[in-house]
Design brief:
With about 350 residues, the protein is an all-alpha fold. It folds into three domains: about 10-60, no CATH class; about 70-220, UbiA prenyltransferase (Tetracycline Repressor, domain 2, Orthogonal Bundle); about 240-354, no CATH class. The chain has 13 helices and no strands. The chain has helices at about 45-60, 60-80, 90-100, 105-130, 135-140, 150-170, 175-195, 200-220, 225-245, 260-275, 280-300, 305-325, 330-350. Helix 4 packs antiparallel against helix 6 and helix 8 runs antiparallel to helix 9 (about 225-245). The chain is globular and about 60 Å long. The chain starts with about 45 loop residues before the first helix and ends in a 6-residue tail after the last helix. Its main location: membrane.
Length: about 350
């Protein structure tokens, strides 16, 4: 008997069956629920189907989905994890800060750039695991690809498709934006392919974030002015510093001090190239405090605390963008960046950011 519907024997009172009669409206035993004792089969057929389907989903999701359905759901969840979607708000804050530096971006164009950058980031993250599949099989077998939650071919296809989508969307803004998009996609692929064991990898990772600034400004039709270049290079320094301190995490003596200066550099650059006002100073102080707190956590011996600290440094990218926005006269964008910082931390509780 299937829990997808009621047994046919209920349709006739005179049916000869070895199974004892059941009251009309009773749920099949396979669903694990008792009958409500009321209900007319014909009048309540539609509503009962909904009840039964819901009951099956709660009590036997695999049986109701089927093997193929359960496999698809598992693959989708795995791709969400691979894409590190919890960190996407920091990509959005990059775009917002860059739009401030560009002098503004019309809402439809801003939305398109946000989607394009989200696609590029997510595609790059998925491909990162695709490139690392054999290494992860030895060192981190619980990762989605070696664990078999998603097929490697699916990861390659989805990752490359997202990169292509992001490049195509940015290319619609013109030749300069298209060139920046291709450069960004190229930097992503270079990092994904050669980030293990190569000293230049942190710089390439930082370059990926810097190119988000540059591509956004070019999509807005603005010039690559000195403040834009300075902010992009400072963001490159932050992400490179993040990578370096994260690699050395685990012992107090193992975390070098000089990369911490790279983490604080964008705050000073934003204040130097923009306007020093009460909001920008407040944002700068808050961002610096969060960064210092996170670095302290990286020097902890507890693995869980170190992982949270890396996530905090990733989320703090949005605070750095907030300082840039405040220093260049856009308080609204600065406050949105603070909200995106909080959103990143909240999402990291659901989907790991590292």
């Amino acid at each position: 008997m299937s829990c997808a519907g009621l047994p046919r024997s209920l349709r006739g009172a005179g049916s000869h069956t070895a199974e004892p009669p059941r009251r009309v409206g009773a749920l099949p035993p396979a669903c694990g629920l008792a009958s409500s004792g009321s209900g007319d089969l014909h009048l309540e057929r539609a509503s009962r189907r909904g009840e039964i389907a819901g009951a099956c989903w709660r009590h036997r999701p695999r049986a109701c989905l089927g093997a193929d359905g359960a496999r698809r759901v598992r693959a989708i969840v795995a791709l969400v994890r691979l894409a590190r979607v919890s960190n996407l708000p920091t990509v959005w804050s990059n775009v917002l800060a860059a739009s401030v530096l560009a002098g503004g971006l019309a809402s439809p164009s801003l939305a398109m750039v946000l989607v394009a950058m989200s696609a590029l980031y997510s595609g790059g993250m998925i491909l990162n695991d695709a490139f690392d599949r054999e290494i992860d099989a030895r060192e981190r077998p619980e990762r989605p690809l070696p664990a078999g939650d998603a097929a490697p071919a699916t990861a390659w296809a989805v990752g490359l498709a997202l990169l292509a989508l992001g490049v195509a969307m940015l290319a619609s803004f013109g030749g300069r934006s298209a060139s920046a998009a291709v450069a960004l996609a190229g930097a992503i692929l270079i990092y994904d392919a050669w980030h293990k064991g190569y000293a230049f990898a942190p710089l390439v990772m930082g370059l990926c974030r810097a190119l988000v600034y540059i591509a956004t400004v070019l999509a807005a039709g603005a010039a690559l002015s000195a403040p834009v270049i300075a902010a992009a290079l400072a963001l490159l320094a932050y992400v490179a510093g993040l990578s370096l301190v994260a690699r050395g995490a685990g012992a107090r003596s193992a975390v070098p001090h000089w990369p911490v200066l790279l983490l604080l550099l964008p705050i000073g650059v934003a204040l130097a190239s923009g306007e020093v006002n009460s909001l920008s100073l407040l944002m700068a102080a808050g961002a610096a405090a969060v960064i210092i707190l996170a670095v302290g956590g990286l020097r902890s011996g507890a693995a869980e605390r170190r992982e949270r600290s890396v996530g905090l440094l990733i989320a703090a990218i949005a605070l750095v963008d907030g300082v840039v926005s405040a220093a260049h006269g856009n308080a609204t964008m600065a406050m949105i960046c603070v909200g995106l910082f909080a959103l990143t931390l909240a999402l990291q509780r659901i989907v790991p950011g590292t």
